[in-house]
Amino acid sequence: MNNAMIVKSAVLGISILVAAACSQAGEQAAQVAQAEQKNELGYKTGDPADWPAELDAVAAAPGNHKILLENESVRVLEVSMAPGETEPLHSHRWPSVLYIQQAGDFIDKDADGTTIFDTRELDTPLTFPLTMWKEPEAPHSVVNLSDDQWVRLIRVEIKD
């Protein structure tokens, strides 16, 4: 086998691996999105106008939500949580795109402390990075269950 054939074989192999990884990540994002659309994740909904302004993510959990850009159309947040950290109760009044860069296991609790999402209960573990759509989120609190993994993501909130 000559060098050109070896290179072509290597490129084909890498392409297949990348396609498989992208397909798996896409399937996981679709699984979470479908469950969210059916509200199977248990997220409480409601009118964001009814949620207290002091529970806005930036006001209620400033140690976890840093504004990277804000204008009349969008608010871009850098979100981070240390291993073992629990975020203060907060809300997100606009729909958003999440680009989750890394995370270990985590749970999300509603304002009453009821677990509404637990990564340990997924059929397939999440693979990162992961991009997903989120509708407005009523007051909730995320708990990073990992002893050594940070939760890091970018949230692009789409204002009305």
TrEMBL record:
This is Cupin 2 conserved barrel domain-containing protein. SUPFAM superfamilies: RmlC-like cupins. Keywords: Signal. Gene3D superfamilies: Jelly Rolls. Residues 1-25 form the signal peptide. The keyword Signal applies.
